[in-house]
Amino acid sequence: MVEEARAGEALFRPVRAGNPFEETVERLLQSIKLGVVGPGERLPSERDLAARLNVSRVTLREAIRALTEAGYVESRRGRYGGTFVNTRLPRPKRVGAKKLARELGDGLEDALVLRSALEVGAAEAAASRALGVEERDHLTRCLADTATAKLTDYRRMDSRLHLAIAEVSGSPSLTTAVADVRMRLNALLDAIPLLERNIVHSDEQHQRIVDAILAGDAPGARTSMQEHLAGTAALLRAFLS
User: Is 87 buried (19+), middle (13-18) or exposed (0-12) by CB count in 10 A?
Assistant: First the structure.
């Protein structure tokens, strides 16, 4: 699929030489937790993944084995075989939000400021481009998936939408940075309750952001994303205070 290839450019990038196994596990987990490869879907082929990540197939197999043991993927043999994301993913450990915040320390505010700078810039950049048909379809599909997501899938689909906005900015480096900061905040987001009113409000804000991007309204996309991220940050701080 086109969107998988685009996301793969950012998330399945070459790992650094120092910790190939650990970074391979991290990249694969990012692709699953941020919704790039969803439950029941197949990861790229072993040969393709090893080439993209610039790791040996031995290292890749060890990483896949670790994720299999952790309950994230399964391997299937045969003509239509490969490595598939499990339809039921492991649930995040319920750790108190305040405890996580204490562990993060100043890192929380750092992550929130970084997220705002990156994602506001991504929305503005996306709206400033002449998007192709496939990019527009990708963005509207991710928006629809988020708006219709079950409560148990909402965080993952929300992550996927925000990543899609970064993808259509045209900068793989920006997409990578957005994915990294989202992973830093996911544990905290998972630790606070999903409130129905907040979900409704978020969906409305998502619609305004995407509408502005598709209309080529860069100032509107920037303002809408700022308001959306400010609301999420305020909710986090409220539960952590």
Answer: exposed
Alpha helices in the chain (DSSP H): 2-11, 20-33, 46-53, 57-69, 97-104, 107-127, 133-147, 154-167, 172-191, 196-214, 218-240
Tell me which of 191 and 198 has the higher pLDDT.
Answer: 198
Every domain of the chain and the residues it spans? 2-85, 97-240
Instruction: Return the CATH fold of 97-240.
Output: Four Helix Bundle (Hemerythrin (Met), subunit A) (1.20.120)
* Nearest alpha carbon to residue 156 among 208, 92, 110, 230: 92
Structure confidence by residue, pLDDT tens digits, 24-78: 998 898 899 888 898 999 999 999 999 999 999 999 999 999 999 999 999 998 8
> What is the CATH number assigned to the segment(s) 2-85?
1.10.10.10
Q: How confident is the model at residue 5 (pLDDT cuts 50, 70, 90)?
A: very low
Start-to-end Cα distance in the chain: 43
Residue 42 bridge partners (DSSP): 84
Residue 165 has pLDDT above 70, yes or no: yes
Q: pLDDT of 149-158, one tens digit each?
A: 998 889 899 9
Contact 100, 190 (CB under 8 A): no
Angle between helix axes 107-127 and 196-214 (nearest 10 degrees) is: 40
The partner residues of 76 in beta bridges, in order of sequence, read 82
